[in-house]
Amino acid sequence: MLSIVLFGAPGAGKGTQSKMLVEKYNLTYISTGDILRKEIAAGTEIGIQAKDIINQGGLVDDEIIVQIIEKTIENSTTGGILFDGFPRTVVQAYILEGLLHRMNRRLLCLLSLEAPREMLIERMLKRASIEGRDDDKKEVILNRFQEYDKKTIPVAEFYKEKGIYCPVDGVGSVEEVFARLETIIDKTLENAYRNIILYGAPGSGRGTQAKNLAKKYDLVYVSTGAMIRDEIEKGSEIGMESKIYIERGDNVPDLIAIKLIEQKISNNPNARGFLFKGFPSTYVQAYIMDGILEKIHTSVTCMIEMQSNTLQCIRRLTQRSKTEKRRVYDMDPEIIIHRLESYENSAANVRSYYQKKNKYYNVNSDAPVDVVFETLCKTVDEALKKA
Ligand code: AP5
Ligand code: MG
What we know:
Number of domains: 2
Helix content: 55-70%
CATH architecture of the largest domain: 3-Layer(aba) Sandwich
Number of strands: 10
Strand content: 5-15%
Largest sheet: 5 strands, parallel
Radius of gyration: 26 Å
Strand order of the largest sheet: 2-3-1-4-5
CATH superfamily of the largest domain: P-loop containing nucleotide triphosphate hydrolases
Shape: elongated
Bound molecules: BIS(adenosine)-5'-pentaphosphate, magnesium ion
CATH topology of the largest domain: Rossmann fold
Structural class: alpha/beta
CATH class of the largest domain: Alpha Beta
Order of helices and strands: EHEHHHEHEHHEHEHEHHHEHEHHEH
Number of helices: 16
């Protein structure tokens, strides 16, 4: 899930850009400055403690900041978060690490808006004449810069070491700066997630390879078949509705698959990406997949088709039907043929969907399991390099 810190000196444009970012990426906005100003206006205990410090351009105590951040995060939704004005000290950077850990999230990046001091002073003095913020007086502004240089700049080092520090030119119109931020966020998101689709005929060995592949590339394994089997076992409404399709060897309705996939995604906010098996299996589902990933601002990295001789697939499924791993749809040769036919009917279109996007790869999966795994890993590495 997308969590971002917007960083920068006083007047750099954090508040201005935040409003637009929150809208575009559907984020919960947490601005410690805004929260403190509200506490002051409401005359709360925290407000009383913070007022003089803020009006002199100093930094409010870390203890107070933890309290307000905790309170706000507890009330926040499960989506992404945009932090403005926090962390502002190295201690706060550690606090944020702890908070994110507790929420099972990670920070995508720290975007640092950069502009010359004279320009920032000019902007804040102009703002003073419009909004009348108590800390927008020349001498207070200079104190705020001093605090920033002494206590906040070291925070940048903290994130440089983590490799997620992104400087952004803050000079230019609001729209120009926003476009720069958007480009960086989109690119970072693209690189932060790896979404792999393992495609192929029933019996081509996707399930066998998928779990190991997910483990090796630190991805969350999303198998629509496995999720549906779980639902059937639980006797849930979705399970009951799906049972009849599964027994016939048919796909469950797309809406059911979408619901299960989205549930899996939202239960794994810290995922570095997903390995999909069993979905998409039709041309329509290829579109749906893009739609699902778009909602979390990411996309398919590659689609790998495991190509197998049809007789080999039949042999594998028949063999499985004699083991404990048997599926209801392995037992009847008619159903096996029906499933293989469905695959063959959709494969050309699904393949071309990803070929057109330059994201299609294939491996021969008739070889022994470990040989296929090795080839798959090489293919994934190649796809990641290209992406
Ligand atoms: P806070 O409210 O966070 O203030 P700040 O960091 O000093 O930053 P500003 O809000 O002044 O600037 P901004 O970067 O948001 O710029 P804006 O978009 O408004 O904190 C206030 C105080 O609270 C601190 O001093 C501290 O005491 C305390 N505090 C807060 N968080 C704390 C923490 N974590 N720990 C301890 N203490 C904490 O833009 C400025 C102006 O420029 C606006 O008028 C805007 O319209 C204009 N503008 C913006 N972009 C452009 C552009 N591209 N071109 C022309 N004009 C522009
Ligand atoms: Mg601000």
